[in-house]
Prior knowledge:
By secondary structure, the protein is of the alpha+beta class. The protein has helices at 5-17, 34-46, 59-69, 87-96, 98-103; strands spanning 20-24, 26-27, 30-31, 51-54, 76-79, 82-85.
Amino acid sequence: MALDEAVSQEITETLQGNEVVLFMKGNRRSPQCGFSATVVGILDSMITDYHTVDVLSAPHIRDGIKDYSSWPTIPQLYVKGEFVGGCDIIQEMMGSGELYEALG
């Protein structure tokens, strides 16, 4: 399925307006899946300010973000507009110290 122009624009604007963005199931206070909860826990331990997008309340974003990043799963972390990865990659990056560097 091709990425809808309007959805692509909405995602781009979200990424441009926020340095760190997590597309996830649920929200920061109430993650709705274990993978999203894991990434929220990692981010909360490292930074205080980041933006979340609840893909469960925005199905067009849920489908669109997968095409946007060419990554099949949620959550997805972006830093400064660049796709960083999903839960497994974030965990690996935290363990290696790369995530601290990526987040500045």
